Amino acid sequence: GNTSEDYLRILRNVPTQRAAAYVRVSNPVNSSKLSLVEKGICEDIQCKSEELVIRKQGVYLIYCHLNFHFPNCSNSPTDLKIEFLVNDKVDRQTLSTWCASEMCQEKTFKTLFQLHLTYLNVKDRISVTLNHPKFLNEISLPNENVLGVLRYSDEM
């Protein structure tokens, strides 16, 4: 089945601290932030077009699952950078260098998963940026590109 739908079904049955979001993301429209395109869950978190806004302070687990598609094989390495922003400031980033192998075929795929556990205040804004959004795979696996936030506890 669809992994994204499986996670959504599981999350609906997980007892959270009354705050959770699980939304599909896609390429940015007018900025470098990924667009939030489909609400799966938005419970006590405000889901806007490019960011999630926290309504209850506490420790949150933020995660992002993204699939990339490189349509043309290249011999030069490509650096993929994912950044979690809190109030438009980088709070966590991951850099992954994608190198084409000698066995490189026409199309190449890569999946990146990032986790971040942090304390958030009321009205904190969460967003995600990519340095190469053009490589985000929205054709083969559009439903698999997701941003999730779970309130883990009230305090650190």
Automatic annotation (TrEMBL):
A Pfam family: TNF
Gene Ontology process terms (BP): CD8-positive, alpha-beta T cell differentiation; immune response
Assigned GO CC terms: membrane
SUPFAM superfamilies: TNF-like
Positions of the THD domain: 1-152
Molecular functions (GO terms): tumor necrosis factor receptor binding
InterPro entries (alphabetical): TNF_CS, TNF_dom, TNF_ligand_SF_member_8, Tumour_necrosis_fac-like_dom
Source taxon at top rank: Eukaryota
PROSITE patterns: THD_1, THD_2
Similarity comment text for this entry: Belongs to the tumor necrosis factor family.
Protein name as it appears in the record: Tumor necrosis factor ligand superfamily member 8
Source species: Phaethon lepturus (White-tailed tropicbird)
